[in-house]
Amino acid sequence: MASFKSANPFLKPNNDTGFGNNPNSYGGRFINKDGTFNLKREGIGVFDKFSIFQRMLNLSTFKFVLLIVVSYIIINLLFTFAYLLAGPDQLQGIIGQTPWAKFKETFYFSTQTFVTVGYGRINPVGDIASILASIESLSGLMSFAIATGLIYGRFSRPKSYLAFSDFAVISPYKDKTAFMFRFVNYKDNHILTNVEIKVSVALLLEEDGAPTYKFYDLQLERYKVDNLPMNWTAVHAIDENSPLQGFTYKDLENADMEAYVLITGFDEIYASPVLQRTSYTYQELKFEAKFVPMYRESDDGKMTILEVHKLNEVTEAKPQIKA
Amino acid sequence: MASFKSANPFLKPNNDTGFGNNPNSYGGRFINKDGTFNLKREGIGVFDKFSIFQRMLNLSTFKFVLLIVVSYIIINLLFTFAYLLAGPDQLQGIIGQTPWAKFKETFYFSTQTFVTVGYGRINPVGDIASILASIESLSGLMSFAIATGLIYGRFSRPKSYLAFSDFAVISPYKDKTAFMFRFVNYKDNHILTNVEIKVSVALLLEEDGAPTYKFYDLQLERYKVDNLPMNWTAVHAIDENSPLQGFTYKDLENADMEAYVLITGFDEIYASPVLQRTSYTYQELKFEAKFVPMYRESDDGKMTILEVHKLNEVTEAKPQIKA
Amino acid sequence: MASFKSANPFLKPNNDTGFGNNPNSYGGRFINKDGTFNLKREGIGVFDKFSIFQRMLNLSTFKFVLLIVVSYIIINLLFTFAYLLAGPDQLQGIIGQTPWAKFKETFYFSTQTFVTVGYGRINPVGDIASILASIESLSGLMSFAIATGLIYGRFSRPKSYLAFSDFAVISPYKDKTAFMFRFVNYKDNHILTNVEIKVSVALLLEEDGAPTYKFYDLQLERYKVDNLPMNWTAVHAIDENSPLQGFTYKDLENADMEAYVLITGFDEIYASPVLQRTSYTYQELKFEAKFVPMYRESDDGKMTILEVHKLNEVTEAKPQIKA
Amino acid sequence: MASFKSANPFLKPNNDTGFGNNPNSYGGRFINKDGTFNLKREGIGVFDKFSIFQRMLNLSTFKFVLLIVVSYIIINLLFTFAYLLAGPDQLQGIIGQTPWAKFKETFYFSTQTFVTVGYGRINPVGDIASILASIESLSGLMSFAIATGLIYGRFSRPKSYLAFSDFAVISPYKDKTAFMFRFVNYKDNHILTNVEIKVSVALLLEEDGAPTYKFYDLQLERYKVDNLPMNWTAVHAIDENSPLQGFTYKDLENADMEAYVLITGFDEIYASPVLQRTSYTYQELKFEAKFVPMYRESDDGKMTILEVHKLNEVTEAKPQIKA
Description:
The structure is a homotetramer. By secondary structure, chain A is of the alpha+beta class. Chain A contains six helices and 17 strands. At the A-B interface, α3, α4, α5, β9 and β15 of A face β1, α2, β3, α5 and β12 of B. β16 (304-307) of chain C pairs parallel with β1 of chain D.
């Protein structure tokens, strides 16, 4: 990162990004590809730092089910040991004679108590087992209440179903060159309404003799649409009002360019505002390329077909930027 | 669709509709009568494309109950076969002697386990049946948690209760002609507040020698009301600022006219914004007709009566458009 | 209602109220005291007209519990008859010998099945009873899922906790006369933020020779506050810009005056917008009266005490309107 | 509080705070440190005043669990006494001979009924016990429905996770002096978007010869940011437009200064607006101090580290206000 371009004094920077501008405190990229912030917290307890509910909502379905099953087994093992510690005559109806058989039957009794199925062949007669069983069945119900809340939370949490192109392109656009990327609404019926898009760019530039991160908003040809049923290509013309004007690929690399994107809209299914972020660094740019169309009329002429798999398809195009 | 009218160069089109303007990629209508988009997705897995939660919310009550009952039977049949495969001595308390009787009793045991009623006459003694039963009762509880979430989601999902007239009319209006349709809030107490209505029109017009879809917003006499307790007639005067001025019925047909409607408001019961869409194509226009009033005072003079059944009632009226 | 005042042609009416202005279709008052609209729907089925979920949310706690208990009894009676119809040998473990004793025991078995407690002393052995029991326990779980949803819906539904003064007053205000009413936030911690108040008035006035309802917004001295922790008095000065200027009590009666009120704000506990309505007719006006203060400092000087019970307390005051 | 400064007649006060301005009705501070209002309600029943749901949401996890356990024990004790009152032959299967043993077994039976585990060894045979059991198990299910609602409500309630510095500082700022405080988003991934901050100040000043509370908004160098992933220092320059200009510490004490803060933003996880309040009184000011930076680059240069524990760390700085 030897030489930095100078900041254009005529361009208005965006100082409200919420990011710092000191290169010494900046770690690689501001926003990760998945839209999270590239940031770690220190000096705060793990329970204060993480929101358990939010973690549970973001687990994959597989991991969520696994967590339930593993918790189920562990809780029942703990209660099994407690029943066994309480003594052999606390439970009535156990058939097995060996310790292993008794352990297994006690474990089955524990599961029958936790889920409140309570067949009753094995049942508690001693005080300790009876109290343990009343605690276990209450715990079971409460665990189940928590699971219900988590499952509903996973269902009902508003999220926007947008897939972004893996890269942005620098394409010819009208008689200019433009920075473009696109995204598609891949979920049936989750139409976004009143969609707005905001693109900003972070550039490491020289100002007052020192390298500093400068932030600029990128003007788009169109920054809002009424509805987003299909796909949308965001287009920023690289002209005299663009902070990217005159940058070669090398310049972008030196400037550690990162364009970050925020899409906001209103989701009709959730009746809730949703937003989604992503970012493109200089490594995620494609030059001399433009996106191919991604929808067509159906064969019977009655419907529009959105070709979601073409999201990343490009053809060659000669941009006028010097690569 | 032989001849296309030329696009009026003095009218400002709405380029933010989110629809494409290429006639070759347009399938019949942009928005279906029920407000969904006339669109299909391709090249994406069915699980990515559909939102299961949203599908469940949109099922009719009958289908939703049927789905629960059918799932209940199928899951219990699967567990029944598993218990039977495990062997005859895994369950204790079965009375029946024939395979069919044993199958039935095992099935009943399975249902008693799944819903955690667990009478206990039949109960698992073998390891396999005990483990199967602990899995089945956990599955039962989790299925029930999912059902609870879906039922609450179905209850609580904000929706707007508007019924639209089946057709729009072209009526005389003051000294002009107007495009009108109306809608009614048919649900008691679900008052909409801060209601806004937006009407746009898609017209296939000739521009630069080629037919292309042009989109225009239709100006309304009134586009917002404070509250919507009753019905509302949307009125677009067809004057020199209207993209429909001078169109005969044949012209509208050639232009493949489609007017689409978006109503937004705030629902007080759900404390949530709601929106509803519909569209009117040229086939859904009625000429020389106007809507009759649809409310009156109650007989005792103490209340207003909204006559919802008159939503589609019209009388003859001479519009000044050439039909 | 012999003589009507003429509409002041210099005042801008509010035509966006969503109410009709025809006296022949107006029933007594537009908005009821409790904020609902004075309106009935006709020509639409009861299930389409009412929202069951919303009805359940609005029931008093007593009625809601009663509904659950009564439903519980009725459902169990239905299943009891079904078990009895199936025959005496379908259930095992019944002790009673008389029909009445058998009925009672069958009913108890039914409740044990519905709530899935399933002790098992009485249990189904016949096919019909087994199938009935599997249906009943599934119904029980589903009923319970519905109850969970309703209970959560009742808990979590955003509502604004404002109590309005029973009447509005016409009081002296600075060197003028004003129309005033007040309201108080009576719920601890349910602070409203960004509160706005809108007051409109409906007056039956003569226009073009015919009586017609005219709607006007009433300008307030202050129509928004940042927070509403306490009480607030809305003040409309009756000056030359007021539609009420020069009205005697008789005039207000003839004009069938109704002032309706809409308060909107953001509730921090529910993190949701809330709104509340009420209305004041000419019968609910108090002349020559003004509100007394309703808060004071606590004895130790450490806290403000809000005296909610003083909401309707007034003292005499000489207004300058001719009563 | 002998001498009061005069209110600056050229400064525009904020009269929309919702607070009263009479020193005799003001109790110490307007807003408590935790953001609640320093206010008590009188003359209204405890059930009307408190929102039970909201109370349950605000309980600590420990107290919430304790409440569930204590309620569980109390309800079961009540039912135990009811079963015992009904007589010794109402329950079948009790083994114990002493009253204490019978009491215990009845209690265990009650818990087994309440949580619907229903082993069945002990089961009701008499009418009274059968009816009590059907009531208890229904109560159990309903209690559990309530608990599910409360647990989900606790999970899903939108809240903003901001920690404020314990004090505000009066620091040199550019060539002026400024009032500053800061706050940090301490929760991973709960990024706030469109964050706005509003700071007002209450000052007891002399106006028209009498001391009265005056409210002013404090202008900030920056009052909104696009995102709040990290920390933010609010800066109010004390210049000629500031209501604090020329105040010594003694003046601030006499004026009973209280600055109160409202932060609003949109939380992406909850897809909901959130807000948080706090206040700083003159006792919570630090002079000649400025905040130290609280983030740095990670050792591998790939991430930003936010040092949450440095929130209250300051270094000496010479402000130009006379202390």
